[in-house]
Design goal:
The structure is a homodimer. The first copy, chain A, has about 400 residues and is α/β, with parallel strands linked by helices. Helices cover about 30% and strands about 20% of the residues of chain A.
Chain lengths: ~400, ~400
């Protein structure tokens, strides 16, 4: 019995109560072989433990048991959007990741600078991982081309990665990749996967030909591969679905972009946790839903840096006193996936969650940790149910049926 | 958020890690009124308890809470195939159960020898449950008929049950049953349920008429009823979906047949648990997924034999030391359904499961039993999630989405 956004939309009602969703990226971990404790269990977290004691805890699966979520599906699930149904194309994701202001008709693609030999066969799909500076320099050579009234923007991402955005009329993104995802063969021609996409395919191929000519003398980055042609999807906005005025406080562009895609207001903030809380305080009166994003825990996990992950969790905990003093009606603390230091990567392990509100039915958990959350009152559940739970605890949902 | 095989196929990647799935048929039980302990709780199982301590435990529902699984849906679910979506026709199931080598165009049906009176009305749908020997004798009389270039095989199953397989060109299995599933009425004519099935219907009816003539003097088995006409289904293979080289070690034909249906390699083995483990050891280098099937627990449960079921569980436990010494990356131990001695039948009760891997997040369960698994870290979950979890723990799944 999946609860759809349509159903939530019918029973959601506006109210002055406030919800804060604090996402600690990559929060979940694995027990260290020496101590038997996860990163979260190692950290000293008096405020999180206090919220766990007064609130209700559990564990969430972002996509499904065993499935390791990317950042985008992990966050969509937390916002209540089924990450399998609400799919975002690769090109759009990359554009969002660099804060590119995508317009509704734009077609975006992910690009790789690559190396081809004299016969035109790919010898390195990543052009020896050229530096980000070199990438920016090459993007400048390609940026701003106009082909058949279509304006083409080319923006660097990192190393060999870039984004191309095609802007103009009648562009349909159902296009095959030019990237064959293997070496030893030539890049493929982009083909239209639906009759209406013919014009877009022709423009993409003309762009690739121009890029090849321009890049010819820039070995190893002497060719460009494109994939994941896509348009900004039309997702129902959080305002419509939940009757909320939602705001996002995030220092990384990717998360701001995702939040914008579902209609959140993006608040300018700084790079530290304290900056994010100051932004929250300044804007507290103007919104009734805040998404706060902490990136450092995920990066520390990916770097395999136990001490840093623990230390960032402790900084977040310390900053929580300010959040608690604002007295939001509902506080949810969780992550968008696990990033165990031992694995140095995102993982499939379920993520601890705590929900505090005056109306939660508290359990006996008095510590915010993977093992304590296992016996929490929320049990283990899909992350798409987090928003309905937060809304209910903020008394923002009327009853279903008579 | 249902995870489809299509999604798994996209994120699965080949790797040298190895998974062993040990299915103890009918494992789950009910507490004995005198001891308060289930069959598994009564057994002395030091190795299972050791794996439970190091691993993560839970309880699975094979089909859904309250639904008692047959052996086929129970196993399909464990292999990750939604047993409601992936349906196998009755005729095919019976053919698989006797190791009949079904070819893609074959149409199989389940047969009953039955008794009809002089007016042709059924008086006993099971012909007084004739012996299996008698059944074999009668099948020989019908086996090998050729009607309109269709070769017909008739093979005994048990008591009054047999299988008919029609082999030849242009056979479409959308046919109604001749078995009316009640006494006092005549067998029904087989009718084509789609226009293309006309030829198959005609051949089935001609076969039934020939059978009636041949059986006339063999009262009480003087007629044959057919039902469940079906063709071998085309399920995606485990190799394709999971990028695995899977092998099955099972002494009963039914389980070998099911495994073959989804593309597992069938390894020749003996009838004891030790035989199965010796087969595993011999073939350990050549595959990366092993399905080991233990039948005795289910048979003992159906016979209501507590001591035998306990003793077989203890034999399995004892044999586990050999499995553990091979050091597979992932070991999963569970059952395909419960068969409580007290019920003498398959039941709907969820089945304990343990998963051991270097990357599992261990829980506090230190005993493999129904009651201990209740507080396990895997929680209670659908059996179709077992394979994604095993794959994740073997680091054979890449992340979903960016």
């Amino acid at each position: 019995m999946d609860i759809s956004l349509e159903l939530i939309k019918e029973i959601a009602r506006p109210s002055p109560t406030k919800i804060v969703l604090l996402v600690i990226d990559g929060l979940g971990g694995l027990p260290n072989p020496e101590t038997g404790k996860t990163e979260l269990e190692t950290a000293n977290t008096p405020y999180l433990d206090q919220l766990a004691t007064k609130g209700i805890c559990g564990l969430i699966d972002l996509v499904a048991p065993g499935i390791t979520p990317g950042s985008s599906p992990g966050h969509l699930a937390l916002f209540g959007y089924d990450p399998i149904r609400f799919n975002i194309g690769r090109g759009v994701l990359e554009a969002i990741g660099i804060d590119f202001d995508l317009q509704p008709g734009d077609v975006a693609a992910r690009g790789n600078f690559c190396t081809v030999d004299k016969a035109g066969r790919i010898t390195d799909r990543r052009a020896g991982r050229i530096s980000t500076d070199k990438c920016a320099e090459l993007c400048q050579l390609l940026d701003g081309l106009v082909i058949d009234n279509i304006k083409i923007s080319v923006c660097p991402v990192r190393e060999h990665r870039f984004v191309v955005v095609f802007r103009g009329d009648n562009l349909v993104p159902s296009l095959s990749d030019s990237d064959p995802q293997q070496v030893g063969v030539a890049p493929k021609a982009v083909t239209a996967l639906s009759p209406e996409a013919g014009r877009a395919a022709s423009i993409a191929n003309q762009f690739i030909a121009r890029a090849q000519a321009i890049l010819a003398e820039h070995h190893p980055a002497n060719m460009a591969l494109l994939r994941g042609f896509s348009r900004r999807p039309h997702f129902p906005s959080m305002g419509e679905v939940y009757k909320l005025r939602p705001a996002a406080i995030a220092s990384y562009p990717m998360y701001r972009g995702l939040a914008k895609l579902i209609g959140m207001e993006i608040l300018e903030t700084g790079t530290t946790i304290e900056d994010e809380l100051a932004t929250l305080k300044q804007n507290y009166a103007d919104y009734d839903f805040f998404f706060l994003h902490i990136k450092g825990t995920d990066s520390a996990g990916e770097d395999g840096d136990l001490d840093r992950k623990v230390s960032i969790i402790e900084q977040v905990d310390n900053a929580l006193s300010k959040l608690i003093s604002m007295e939001p009606d509902v506080i949810v603390v969780t992550g968008d996936h696990s990033t165990p230091v031992l694995l140095r990567a995102h993982s499939w392990h379920p993520v601890p969650i705590l929900l505090y509100s005056k109306w939660c039915r508290p359990d006996k958990v008095n510590e915010f940790s993977e093992s304590a959350c296992l016996s929490g009152g929320l049990g283990r559940f899909p992350a798409t149910q987090v928003m309905p739970l937060a809304m209910a605890n903020a008394l923002k949902l009327t009853k279903f049926g008579a």
